[in-house]
Amino acid sequence: LEGENYYSEYNEMADHPNFDDFNQIVVDGVTISLPCTYADLVAAGFYADELELNATVKAFDYGYLELNSSKKDYIADVQIVNNSDADVTAENCMVTYMDFYYKSEDENHIFDGIEFVNGLTVFMTVDETIDLLGEPNDIYMDDTDWGKLESYTWEYEYVDGYYSFVTVSFYDGVINDVQVNNGPNVY
Known about the structure:
Blueprint: H1 3-13, E1 15-16, E2 19-20, E3 24-27, E4 30-33, E5 36-37, H2 38-43, E6 46-48, H3 50-54, E7 56-57, E8 61-69, E9 76-82, E10 88-89, E11 94-101, E12 114-115, H4 126-133, E13 138-144, E14 147-159, E15 162-171, E16 174-184
Antiparallel strand pairs: 1-2, 3-4, 3-12, 5-11, 6-8, 7-10, 8-9, 9-11, 11-16, 13-14, 14-15, 15-16
């Protein structure tokens, strides 16, 4: 898949039996549907360092950007994919993955105004999240130096190199990380 067909075809495949549009993230009323463009992220109030944006991404390769917002520097990591047969700048790649996280419950206000899949917000408990999203496909638990980690993954599609999922992680019952992926499996 290349060009505009890439966006529409991957977004058409974004489906889950419990809800529609898992790949949409709403930021202060602006909807981002993964995969998206860097311009879509800017329209939602995010930005990346100019040096990162001007870096070259080789044909059929991928990279990462660190996103900032007016609420906080370094609010998310995003994966970018160059699905063309020519080298392009990072700014001209497709965004297929976003990883939003914060370091402590005191920082959760930076996600006020952001809704993830099916209305998920970072203020929800484990039980509220499972009630909202249904039973996860995968659960990971661990006792760490930072507290009890609980990580839940809802997988949507995994065919022909395409992978879409949402992972929500909690430390001591508080959401601290939300990952959304919709695009080629290039990890």
